[in-house]
Design goal:
The protein has about 190 residues and is of the alpha/beta class. The protein contains ten helices and four strands, in the order βαβααααβαβαααα.
Length: about 190
């Protein structure tokens, strides 16, 4: 379902809390191929997930990251979606806000690793599809190979402490669920 100039997606919280995955997806958004959206609830979820999984996580730094995301992508934060939530039905009622954000923002995709939480039968009536981040990146790779390679290059270059070789960076992407995308990007390791 990827295509059309500047289509819209919603990033679910589960793709925003592994740092490497979040950074890469945000750099892909900078390519201007699509619009990425999230909500205050999605921010709260990914921040809570990081705090729950990492004992040394700093809430203030995570909130600063949230603020920078909203500042850098001023059209990304979806508001006004709350009235839609009660009318939606999903296997996990706590995910309804994500679908509501997709509907409100006109997004055709929800980028998530939790595909079973967003069944096609619940999303189809709204013209929305759930897609795994690896499939999303692979589709973008077919659409604009250079933009994906450039995003990977910028993401790797930004890592300073510690820095990573292209191969190490691609291994991190694979470890964060982008197995197919990392495999495709290996061909471009010398420029990443």
């Amino acid at each position: 379902m990827i295509g059309g100039r500047r289509f819209a997606v919603v990033y679910d919280a589960c793709v925003l809390f592994p740092f490497t995955l979040r950074d890469f997806l945000l750099r892909l958004r900078q390519s201007d191929l699509f619009r990425a959206h999230w909500t205050a609830e999605i921010h709260a979820e990914w921040i809570s997930a990081v705090l729950a999984r990492r004992a040394n996580a700093d809430r203030a730094k995570l909130q600063r990251t949230r603020d920078l995301m909203d500042e850098h992508f001023p059209d990304a934060l979806v508001t006004g979606h709350q009235p839609l939530i009660a009318s939606l039905s999903l296997p996990d009622p706590n995910d309804r806000h994500v679908l509501a954000a997709a509907i409100k923002s006109g997004a055709s995709l929800i980028v998530t690793t939790n595909l079973t939480d967003f069944p096609a039968s619940a999303l189809d009536p709204f013209g929305v599809e759930a897609i795994h981040p690896d499939e999303f990146v692979l589709d973008l790779f077919e659409l604009a190979e250079g933009a994906v390679v450039s995003a990977a290059k910028r993401a790797r270059a930004a890592l300073k402490n510690p820095s990573f070789s292209p191969e190490e960076y691609l291994a991190r992407l694979a470890a964060n669920g982008l197995v197919g995308a990392a495999g495709e990007l290996k061909e471009f390791a010398e420029v990443i």
